[in-house]
Design goal:
Number of helices: 6
Structural class: alpha+beta
Low-confidence stretches: none
Number of strands: 4
Order of helices and strands: HHEEEEHHHH
Helix content: 40-55%
Largest sheet: 4 strands, antiparallel
Shape: globular
Distance between the termini: 21 Å
Length: about 180
């Protein structure tokens, strides 16, 4: 069960299923509408992971499954010589019985102007991807990553990388 009905998230889990991450490559992947309980634009690792965990717990209360997957993207601030922002997805995979692993995707730099516009409007109402797409024709607000990376990778590919990391860790988990 995927703690989202977003086609990109469900699709990434379906692709990873074929690599036997979840045991049966022919298993059924189903997305459920699971609330994050946080704002539209999570900010920082703690809030983003909290959103992923909230989604996971919600999905677990809705449907029995062998595996649960939750994915939450958030914005992270890094200050080096200037303030910069990165979009990172946190992935949580939990096996029936409670074994759990977390991993995050590669961070993609989000232009500061769009993060700051979303922040000014309120992260509870909007997000940086929506602001970026509104001002740049051809940008998908659900996948600004592809545009930001000049077509070198899209959001689903980044999610698959994080899912592979979480899956590998889960296979090695002893608790």
């Amino acid at each position: 069960v995927v703690a989202s009905q977003a086609a990109m998230k469900v699709g990434a889990v379906q692709k990873i299923m074929k690599e036997k991450c979840f045991g049966d490559p022919n298993g059924i992947v189903e997305g459920v509408k699971a609330p994050s309980g946080i704002g539209e634009q999570p900010f920082g690792h703690d809030e983003t992971i909290r959103g992923a965990m909230n989604r996971l717990n919600s999905a677990k209360s809705m449907k029995a499954a062998d595996f649960y997957v939750s994915i939450e993207n958030g914005i992270f601030e890094v200050e080096i010589t200037q303030r910069r922002y990165f979009d990172v997805a946190w992935v949580v995979i939990e096996k029936a019985g409670g074994k759990q692993s977390l991993a995050h995707s590669v961070g993609v730099e989000m232009p500061a102007e769009y993060v700051e516009k979303a922040l000014a409007e309120g992260f509870d109402k909007t997000n940086a991807g929506t602001k970026l797409a509104a001002e740049n024709p051809g940008v998908n607000k659900q996948d600004p990553h592809k545009w930001l990376l000049s077509g070198q990778a899209d959001r689903e590919e980044l999610l698959i990388g994080a899912l592979k990391a979480a899956c590998g860790q889960l296979k090695k988990a002893t608790v």
